[in-house]
Amino acid sequence: MSHEMRFCPNCATPLQWIASQEDSGMKDRLRCVACHWTHWGNPTPVLAAVVENDRGEALLARNAMWQEGVFGLITGFMEAGESPEQGICREVMEETSLRVKALRILGSWEFLRMNQVLVAYHVRVDGDVKLSPELLEYQWKTPQEARCWPSGTGYALAHWVRSKGVEPQFGAFRPGQSPEPDPVKWPPRPWAEDARFVLPPLF
C-alpha cells in the first residue's frame, strides 16, 4: 500500500499497532487507544471489464501513468450506493463513452499489493470510443490476438478468451514480471481436482 492509516477517523488520536483478541485469535491491528476504534484494513472493491464489441473483439486501454506498450482492462473503484453491475456500467461509460448493453460476471481475484479485490465482468457495448483523460490510447484485440497477463485482470481476460474457444496465451504485463500464470489460478479445474475446494471428511 502507498498510504497507511495513521490517525483515528473518529477522534484523531494517532493509531498504534495493538494485539487484541478476535474471533480468529490474537490479532495485531492499528487501533485507537482513546476510543478503541479499529482499522480493519479491509480490501477495497475494484471493478474490471472485458469490453467486447459486436465484432467479437476486446478493448484494451493504456492508462496515462503506464509506460508505452502496456495495455489493460477498463477498471475503477466501486462507489457507495451502487451495485457492482451498476458500477461497471458507469466505469465503462466514464472511461470509454461506450454504453453497456449486456453483462455477465467472470470472477473475482485478489490484488494483494494494493489490498484490493477485483470483481470482473464481461460486457457487450454500443457506441464509439472516446477515452477519458485517464486513458491515453486503446486497441481492439481478437481472442487470437489477446495476450493475457498472470495477475487478476489478466485471468479475467483469459476466461473471456477461452469462452471464445481459443486457448489463452500469457505474457508479462510489465518488464521483469514472470509471464507464467499461477498454477493455482490457471488453468481452471473442476472442484474435484482443485485442492482449494476439497471438503474435509465427515466424522
TrEMBL record:
Gene3D superfamilies: Nucleoside Triphosphate Pyrophosphohydrolase. Transmembrane segments: none annotated. Residues 41-163 form the Nudix hydrolase domain. InterPro entries: NUDIX_hydrolase-like_dom_sf, NUDIX_hydrolase_dom. PANTHER family: NUDIX HYDROLASE 23, NUDIX HYDROLASE 23, CHLOROPLASTIC. This is NUDIX domain-containing protein. It comes from Comamonas avium.
